[in-house]
Amino acid sequence: MTTRPTAPPAARPGAATRAEYCVVACAEAWRGDGEILAAPMGTLPTVAARLAKLTFAPDLLLTDGEALLMGDVPAVGAPSAVTEGWLPYRRHLTMAMGGRRHVMMGASQLDRFGNQNISCVGDWHRPTRQLLGSRGAPVNTANNPVSYWIPRHGPRVFVEKVDMISGVGYDSAAAAGPSATRFHELRRVVSQLGVFDFEGPDRTLRLVSVHPGVSVAEVRAATAFDLAVSPALGPTRAPTAEELRLIREVLDPAGLREREVRP
User: Fold this and answer.
1) Which of 58, 67, 99, 143 is most exposed, with the fewest beta carbons within 10 Å of its own?
2) What local confidence, expressed as pLDDT, does residue 254 receive?
3) How would you classify residue 34: left for phi > 0, otherwise alpha for psi between -120 and 50, otherwise beta?
4) How far apart are CA 55 and CA 8, in angstroms?
């Protein structure tokens, strides 16, 4: 198992909100990645990736979501004032095939092995709900480190078995053979209840920390499968005073992060 750099001790959290704990927990996914493209999908992961770059991961590459590599770190929704390079969609896809990217995606369903579904709910031949579609999830999970941000942790999301595999989990990668496992790495899952890795039995989901006010029993009740718990389970790292300042004053002064996490 690869040893990841450890986080610094947190300052007193003060009035940090649950959403701000989640921002920091998501940011930690990119710790130690070096010069790699961070590809966050969604508002809170975008705040998190930019926080990581401004603090412990200065070599991260960030895009404006369209075609430019940003040379600065603006607030979410604001344009970049400094352009570092050009990265149109076709080059972004080439980078995705080469593994120099760490993606943070969402999931409509996620099972214990990390198989992700963003395509449909119900039988594939006659689904009850049509979702986004698998899009780049298979390539993302086969070629890049992948983490997940799931703001609604419940038994309809953390399921025993996904209705369709979009992102590849550890059991599916192993069944497909070396071509699927060579670069496959599911790094971290963050929900509004806690933080998880895949160091459980047979590379299954494992709870590693809970956010303030959350119990292990609450997390297990919101999960439709038997959830492993780390023997080193503890509280999620609190934001430092500087991280709170950056989140509130620099990266997300409009407070968009709070819309993703229920109080």
Assistant:
1) 58
2) 95
3) left
4) 11
pLDDT for position 38: 93
Residue 193 sits at the vertex; the CA angle it makes with 192 and 194, to the nearest 5 degrees, is 105
pTM of the full structure: 0.90
Nearest to 233 by CA among 217, 221, 219, 216: 216
Q: How far apart (Å, rounded) are the C-alpha atoms in residues 25 and 122? A: 32
| CA 232 to chain CA centroid, nearest Å | 21
Name the E strands within the chain. 37-40, 68-70, 83-86, 101-105, 109-110, 116-117, 120-121, 129-130, 145-150, 185-191, 194-197, 206-210, 228-235
Q: What is the pLDDT of residues 149-160, one digit of tens each?
A: 999 999 999 999
Distance, in Å, from the CA atom of 167 to the CA atom of 184, rounded to the nearest integer, reads 11
Angstrom distance (rounded) from CA 242 to CA 22: 16
Q: Calculate the alpha carbon distances from 112 to 51, 170, 199, 216 in Å.
A: 29, 9, 11, 16
Residue 75 has which token pair? 């607030």
- pLDDT score at 97: 72
Do 76 and 54 form a contact (C-beta atoms < 8 A)? Answer: no
Cα(231)–Cα(84) distance, rounded to whole angstroms? 43
- Asked if 147 contacts 102 with a C-beta cutoff of 8 angstroms, the reply is yes
Residue type, 215: S
CA–CA dist 239, 128 (Å, integer): 40
How much is the pLDDT for 124?
83
Q: What is the pLDDT of residue 158?
A: 98
